[in-house]
Write a structure and sequence with these properties.
Helix 1 packs antiparallel against helix 2, helix 1 runs antiparallel to helix 5 and helix 3 packs antiparallel against helix 5. The chain is built from 5 helices and no strands. The protein is elongated, with a radius of gyration of 20 Å. The protein is mostly helical and 173 residues long. Helix content is 77%, strand content 0%.
């Protein structure tokens, strides 16, 4: 029995022409970029909230700028692209895309977080459990970011392919 792609390639639609294959590939690309945008914005906002909570917990000056927030959101959107565009690939490639996203985002987050490391280490002992929970939550967000991008990309691609097939069926009939 032959395995089928996750988003429904031209063969699963009962079509074998090149136009259907190009439409399916186009749907995968468009859905990947749209999913990167959506998941990047969603997880970027969540990350910015976690950053705010850490700043409040350590008593740091919490003057978040619009430019800084836009930078965080842009970083999350851009770093979602590897996971999102590999969502339609074979499972090993999809996993690799997810891990590239997690590794790049984790590295960027750790690099940025070390700027506040001294303040976190010198925090009151009563705050350490809260800071540990916030750190674990941020790590979980980083790992979940790629998975969310791939889920959204597959879902959007499936819907686009189904719409394209319905349009082709209506135009033939």
């Amino acid at each position: 029995m032959e395995k089928k792609s996750r988003i429904g390639p031209a063969e699963t639609l009962g079509e074998t022409d090149q136009a259907a294959a190009r439409a399916t590939a186009g749907a995968a690309l468009v859905s990947g970029l749209a999913a990167a945008l959506c998941s990047g914005l969603l997880t970027g906002v969540a990350a910015r909230l976690l950053m705010r909570l850490v700043a409040l917990a350590i008593g740091a000056e919490s003057a978040f700028s619009l430019v800084g927030t836009a930078g965080v959101l842009l970083a999350f959107v851009v770093l979602a692209v590897p996971a999102a565009v590999t969502s339609a690939a074979r499972p090993p490639i999809a996993r690799a895309g997810r891990w590239v996203t997690a590794a790049a985002l984790g590295w960027a987050a750790a690099r940025t977080g070390f700027a506040d490391a001294q303040a976190i280490l010198l925090a009151d002992d009563g705050l350490l459990p809260l800071l540990a929970v916030l750190t674990v939550a941020f790590g979980a967000l980083v790992v979940a970011h790629g998975r969310l991008a791939q889920h959204l990309a597959r879902s959007l691609a499936h819907r686009l392919v189904a719409r394209q097939a319905a349009r082709r069926a209506r135009s033939v009939a």
